[in-house]
DNA sequence: CTGTTAACCTGAGTGC
DNA sequence: TGCACTCAGGTTAACA
């Protein structure tokens, strides 16, 4: 489900409800997520105050007053809702964090590709975050960086920019949309991009992700923010999910190709 | 090292 | 209605 804009939407939605709130109780119903939820997590997180909620790539980072942190990932189908205590349970409600405000954070994830992990304060670096590429909005992610990284790489540029070691946050939707706006065909070998194309692609990735964050993400099937709200970026899509329809710019028929087991839409005329 | 594929899981949608 | 089948926004492990 969620790429960077959706995760950022959830983060922003959670923030006002959790900052400086104390976790009064943690209810773990189903520990079998992407990795097992640590058995000790409910005990360790209970009584702790939440001091910050941040984001790195598609991971949410929750800093507690003990200096320990939790790492949350929504996977493909995960949601983290702010609800009033006593809200009825539904299937796949795996975990609750009850807060001293009377509200609770409820993690719901049918496919269980998500994760809820403990990151002890004595560990300065977490193995999941260590090898991650730069955030798209930081200066470290720039045209020259992308150009250098892509030299000698034969992988399709779409797979290349979806690789979290290169840059974090662009999943299937936003990779496709960024490439459309940059006029680059998703199948193009990364190593064949020119300097100018790398520069343009960086700008378009930032533009697309930025607009999507402002619109609250993309709701295609089941994405919802922390209060259950939909995103609106789906109205801005040029190629994703539009195979067979006409290009909003030139009228050509949008084509679909499978790249690395993922659907990849592009305009054969606008993207070369 | 690079590149490709399968795997993890459930639910929604489609076609018969 | 029901069944078989395909596909889905992410990430890692296992392979060539």
From TrEMBL:
Gene3D superfamilies: 1.10.8.50, MutM-like, N-terminal (3.20.190.10). The active site is at 2 (schiff-base intermediate with dna), 3 (proton donor), 58 (proton donor), 262 (proton donor). It holds the Pfam family zf-FPG_IleRS. Residues 2-114 form the Formamidopyrimidine-DNA glycosylase catalytic domain. Monomer. One of its GO terms (molecular function) is damaged DNA binding. The keyword Ubl conjugation does not apply. Involved in base excision repair of DNA damaged by oxidation or by mutagenic agents. Acts as DNA glycosylase that recognizes and removes damaged bases. Has a preference for oxidized purines, such as 7,8-dihydro-8-oxoguanine (8-oxoG). Has AP (apurinic/apyrimidinic) lyase activity and introduces nicks in the DNA strand. Cleaves the DNA backbone by beta-delta elimination to generate a single-strand break at the site of the removed base with both 3'- and 5'-phosphates. Its EC number is 3.2.2.23, 4.2.99.18. Belongs to the FPG family. This is Formamidopyrimidine-DNA glycosylase. DNA binds at residues 92, 111, 153. Its cofactor is Zn(2+). The keyword DNA damage applies. Keywords: DNA damage, DNA repair, DNA-binding, Glycosidase, Hydrolase, Lyase, Metal-binding, Multifunctional enzyme, Zinc, Zinc-finger. One of its GO terms (biological process) is base-excision repair. It comes from Solimonas aquatica. It catalyses: 2'-deoxyribonucleotide-(2'-deoxyribose 5'-phosphate)-2'-deoxyribonucleotide-DNA = a 3'-end 2'-deoxyribonucleotide-(2,3-dehydro-2,3-deoxyribose 5'-phosphate)-DNA + a 5'-end 5'-phospho-2'-deoxyribonucleoside-DNA + H(+); Hydrolysis of DNA containing ring-opened 7-methylguanine residues, releasing 2,6-diamino-4-hydroxy-5-(N-methyl)formamidopyrimidine. Residues 238-272 form the FPG-type domain.
